[in-house]
């Protein structure tokens, strides 16, 4: 089925984690001016828009996802004037800016919460979710996503407030019209500034269930994609509809079947980040990647939205480990598997997002001590593991594998001290592999991962069929290969990727037997074979203009 055209469908996005991207003033923390310095790098890569993680005023308990003032910039990142300069310069270079919008919760240091806490009859009381309880008895058994009870007791007013994330991140009460209107006018303020859209943080949590509802198999179900959320999201959409922007919602707990409701013609957002394919890494800590499960997750979204909505495509972000470390084999096939993973997701139907450092194949960090880790949830998990009787060595082993800090280490620009990220010791350790794994090393090497990304971006731009073409999967039950075809008016494309470190044999159906021409590969050229073999992590993109059914 055909897809309507839109700039954000043709675009390639790049996610910037500002604290770790580029430090312009040598305090060890990345900043807005650092992003501005690197715009030409992004331009050369072929990026159309950047999504910047939160840069607003914040006590930084959850690295900026705890906002204390939505209309100010955190000093360590810069000033509002510097933000405006970044926006203007990005636009001059043809790069759009998508801001992170965190409206499920604020910081406990936001003036709304400081007021709200003061008394039961404070005018801001109902901006947050307050419920009666005794110090011994929380309102119910709901668990925070970051661990422990989702309720925090306030001695002074003898009530609990709800926090789906850390206790320093109280949830906003979307049932209050006044609160919603404040949020909407703040959103308009940013849009009137001329930004190009939003990534909506934790947006599937804004509706909560009745407090009598118990957490079941999915402990987060009482506050995740709860029925009635459509009313809130439609109001939000009414605000967005006044602007020519792009929106992408972070939508945990939304299934592929529900996808069209969220991003279809009348959907709440242009696209959403789904969690199905990324959540398989949690179940797969040891051992081999479950290729079939990965394909099932990705293909379900492709099929559900084909002709009905649009996907946001991603393999890593600031909350996940590095994709080459999990989906690839950095020890034996670092470069090749990074390219295979890249090709596998990049030509699916949707807008591809690249997370900073992914384009050079950055890997997980070999953390060896809890002092090296910053992420609030990881530190909490570590303490919990110790309480459960694990030794510090066992605990750090578990935490190191899964911590979000794996993807938050400083960007590796060059081989000089601190990887060219800063002139001073960075807030989070640089991965020791920066001596050889860095941008400088890859920039002029046509066989590098970086050059491969540039090629993929160029090829996608030059081939509308890779953007708008429909999706069809082959060999769904093959446990090594992901094979899919994209068909468009006059051209078809075939993507074949081996996602394992073993040779893979295959036999494709007769209908695929047409003269295919090779467009891109991560190893030596090879003609198309309907029945054949692929080397470990071999990845191929073919094109044909031969008409077929
Ligand atoms: C989202 C963000 C994550 C943050 C959480 C709470 O999941 O991606 O980094 O900790 O929301 O705001
Ligand atoms: Ca700085």
Automatic annotation (TrEMBL):
Alphabetical UniProt keywords: Carbohydrate metabolism, Glycosidase, Hydrolase
GO annotation (BP), single: oligosaccharide catabolic process
Catalytic activity: Endohydrolysis of (1->4)-alpha-D-glucosidic linkages in polysaccharides containing three or more (1->4)-alpha-linked D-glucose units
InterPro entries (UniProt xref): Alpha_amylase, GH, GH13_cat_dom, Glyco_hydro_b, O16G_dom_2
GO MF annotation terms: alpha-amylase activity; cation binding
EC number: 3.2.1.1
Keyword Cell cycle (UniProt): no
Family membership noted in the UniProt record: Belongs to the glycosyl hydrolase 13 family.
UniProt-recorded name of the protein: Alpha-amylase
Protein source organism: Enterococcus hirae
Upper lineage: Bacteria, Bacillati, Bacillota, Bacilli, Lactobacillales
């Amino acid at each position: 089925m055909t897809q309507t055209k839109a700039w954000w469908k043709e675009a390639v996005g790049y996610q910037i984690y500002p604290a770790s991207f580029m430090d312009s003033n040598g305090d060890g923390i990345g900043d807005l001016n650092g992003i501005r310095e690197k715009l030409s790098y992004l331009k050369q890569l072929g990026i159309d828009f950047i999504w910047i993680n939160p840069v607003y005023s914040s006590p930084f308990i959850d690295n900026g996802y705890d906002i204390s003032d939505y209309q100010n910039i955190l000093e360590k990142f810069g000033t509002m004037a510097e933000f405006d300069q970044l926006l203007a310069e990005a636009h001059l270079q043809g790069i759009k800016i998508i801001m992170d919008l965190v409206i499920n919760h604020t910081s406990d240091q936001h003036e709304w919460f400081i007021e709200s806490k003061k008394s039961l009859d404070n005018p801001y009381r109902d901006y947050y979710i307050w419920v009666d309880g005794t110090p011994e008895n929380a309102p119910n058994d709901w668990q925070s996503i970051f661990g422990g009870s989702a309720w925090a007791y306030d001695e002074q007013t003898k009530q609990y407030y709800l926090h789906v994330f850390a206790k320093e991140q109280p949830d906003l009460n979307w049932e209050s019209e006044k609160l919603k209107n404040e949020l909407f006018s703040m959103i308009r303020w940013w849009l009137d500034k001329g930004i190009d859209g939003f990534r909506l943080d934790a947006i599937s949590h804004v509706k909560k269930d009745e407090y009598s509802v118990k957490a079941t198999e999915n402990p987060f179900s009482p506050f995740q994609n709860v029925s009635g959320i459509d009313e809130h999201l439609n109001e939000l959409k009414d605000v967005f509809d006044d602007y020519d922007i792009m929106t992408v919602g972070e939508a945990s707990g939304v299934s592929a079947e529900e996808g069209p409701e969220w991003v279809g013609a009348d959907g709440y957002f242009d696209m959403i980040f789904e969690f199905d394919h990324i959540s398989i890494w949690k179940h797969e800590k040891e051992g081999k990647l479950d290729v079939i499960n990965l394909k099932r997750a990705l293909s379900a979204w492709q099929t559900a939205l084909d002709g009905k909505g649009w996907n946001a495509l991603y393999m890593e972000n600031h909350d996940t480990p590095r994709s080459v470390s999990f989906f690839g084999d950095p020890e034996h096939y670092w470069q090749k598997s990074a390219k295979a993973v890249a090709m596998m997701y990049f030509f699916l139907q949707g807008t591809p997002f690249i997370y900073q450092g992914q384009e050079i194949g950055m890997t997980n960090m070999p953390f060896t001590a809890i002092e090296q880790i910053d992420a609030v949830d990881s530190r909490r998990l570590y303490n919990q593991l110790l309480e459960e009787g694990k030794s510090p060595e066992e605990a750090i082993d578990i935490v190191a594998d899964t911590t979000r800090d794996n993807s938050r280490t400083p960007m590796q620009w060059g081989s000089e001290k601190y990887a060219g990220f800063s002139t001073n010791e960075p807030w989070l350790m640089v991965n020791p592999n920066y001596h050889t794994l860095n941008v400088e090393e890859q920039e002029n090497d046509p066989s590098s991962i970086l050059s491969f990304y540039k090629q993929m971006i160029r090829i996608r731009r030059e081939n509308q069929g890779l953007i708008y073409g429909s999706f069809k999967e082959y060999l769904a039950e093959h446990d090594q290969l992901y094979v899919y075809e994209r068909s468009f008016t006059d051209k078809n494309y075939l993507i074949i990727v081996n996602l394992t470190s073993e040779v893979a044999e295959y036999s494709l159906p007769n209908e695929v037997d047409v003269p295919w021409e090779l467009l891109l590969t991560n190893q030596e050229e090879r003609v198309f074979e309907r029945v054949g073999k692929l080397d470990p992590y071999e990845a191929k993109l073919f094109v044909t203009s031969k008409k077929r059914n």
